[in-house]
Every structure is written in structure tokens, then in C-alpha cells.
Amino acid sequence: MQRESLVFAVSGVFFGLLVGWIIGSQQGGSGSRLKAPAAAPAAQSTATANPSPPPLDENRTRALSAQAEANPKDAAVRVVLANLYFDAERYAEAIRWYEDALKIDPKNVNASTDLGIAFYYSSQIDRALQQLDYSLSVDPKHAKTLLNQGIVRAFGKQDLDGAAKSWEQAVAISPASQEGRAARQALDNMRSAHPGVGGDAPAKPPGS
């Protein structure tokens, strides 16, 4: 599911695109600005059609909405609803339910990070970064958040040094995890195209 990370579904293409953007930005003045959602240009670059989002189960969402209305303190059902809307690429509804869940359970770092990704896919880049910063205030060593923060910085803000910093922290925190490996691949590809980005030494985990 997309919300698990912005990159895992298209990781190989994504990192190729990242390198291409870096090279293009050096050769073409202002460069090619990649816009959210990240998966769309990645799929186009391979000349394959974007897969359609799974259809939304309207009966299930109605039932869950009724359950949420009957249980105003139930954060979990709101997260389930948000996830369903996210996977159907109905980001406005996903954002609404993630925000409702976080009002009840503000320390739910996964829901917070998923909300940040939903903001990104809605082209709300600054709100995405603010939400990811909030996630890291809850858990400074949340590798999934750091990985996605790097992606949003790279593609949403064209901040390659900031992206490298986020990915370095993800590698330092959890080098053997899926997130850590993806962050390492991103760093390696970026530095092969632009060796001066972010330095060469991995950052220490935040809070260490």
C-alpha cells in the first residue's frame, strides 16, 4: 500500500528518477520539477500505465463511519477508514480521518506519518513536512518517517542536502530494515550522480 512508504512500490524506478532529476537540475538551469504524487512520474518514465487504485468498498466505509460516529473515542476505526480512503487515492477523505484519529490518539506516529504522506500526494508539501516533523517529535528514531521525509524534501522541495540528512539518519537508526536499505540506496544513487550532496559520513540517530 502506498502509505507504507512513498517508494517501496516503485523503488527501482524512483531512485533512477532521483538520479535523473539531480543530473537534469545541474544541466538545465532550473531543472525538471517533479510534482506529487511521486509514483505517477515514475510510472510514466517506464512507459507503463499507472495501476488503478483499488476500488473503495463503499459498504465497508459506511459501516465503519457509523461505527466511528457511535464511538467518538475510537481512534483505531478512524485509522482504518483513513487507510481505505488513502488506498483508493481519495486523499481529502483520508486526511480528514487521519486528523480525527490523531485528535484522539496524538502519539500515533504511524497515523501521523501516513497523514504527512497524504498531504504530499495532495500537493500540500509544507503541510507534509510539518506533519513529518511532528511524527519525529513523537518518535525521533522512526525510520519510516525519516525515509519519507527525505523523499518529500527531495521531490517536494528539491532540497537534496536535506533529503540526504534524513536518509542518513534512517540508515544510522535501522540499517538492516526495509526503510534503512531504501535510504541507503537513495543515498548511493544520489551521491553517484552528485558526490557533494550531504557529505559522506552517516549522521548519528536523532536523540543519540
Account of the 3D structure:
This protein has 208 residues and is mostly helical. The chain has one domain (2-193): Tetratricopeptide repeat domain (Serine Threonine Protein Phosphatase 5, Tetratricopeptide repeat), CATH 1.25.40. Helices cover 65% and strands 0% of the residues. It is elongated.
Head-to-tail CA distance between termini: 31 Å
Which overall shape is indicated by the principal axes computed on the Cα atoms?
Answer: elongated
Instruction: Write down the CATH topology.
Output: Serine Threonine Protein Phosphatase 5, Tetratricopeptide repeat
Q: Could you list the spans in which at least 5 consecutive residues all have pLDDT below 50?
A: 7-13, 21-49
Order of helices and strands: HHHHHHHHHH
CATH architecture: Alpha Horseshoe
What is the tally of helical segments? 10
What summary fits the major beta sheet?
A: none
- Provide the residue-averaged pLDDT: 79
Computed over alpha carbons, the radius of gyration is: 17 Å
Just give the CATH class. Mainly Alpha
- Structural class by SSE content: mainly alpha
